[in-house]
Design goal:
The protein is built from 4 helices and no strands. By secondary structure, the chain is mainly α. It has one domain.
Length: 89
């Protein structure tokens, strides 16, 4: 690999470390806020509605939001940057 591509990789790694990590954190926080709001709304429903179709739909949405937050939290940028740095060697 030539020096120009190594520099491009170094810049990419810096961008991932700063910008992508920041974006992932922001997205995780936003998804968690929506999840918390939906859970609060569900908890505020009377039990009869919680057990009904509307409650089931809300529970499904809560489950999907939990999955999304888990995926966002599971994205590890170091795996990406490590692979890029190895390519530059």
């Amino acid at each position: 690999m030539n020096n120009q591509r190594r520099k491009q990789i170094a810049t990419l790694v810096e961008d991932i470390d700063s910008r992508l990590s920041e974006l992932l954190s922001e997205f995780t926080e936003r998804a968690q806020e929506i999840l918390d709001e939906e859970q609060e709304a569900f908890d505020a429903l009377p039990e009869s509605i919680q057990d009904g179709e509307r409650g089931q739909a809300m529970q499904e949405a809560i489950g999907n939001l939990e999955d999304a937050v888990g995926v966002l939290e599971g994205i590890v940028t170091t795996e990406i940057t490590d692979a890029l740095e190895s390519a530059a060697e």
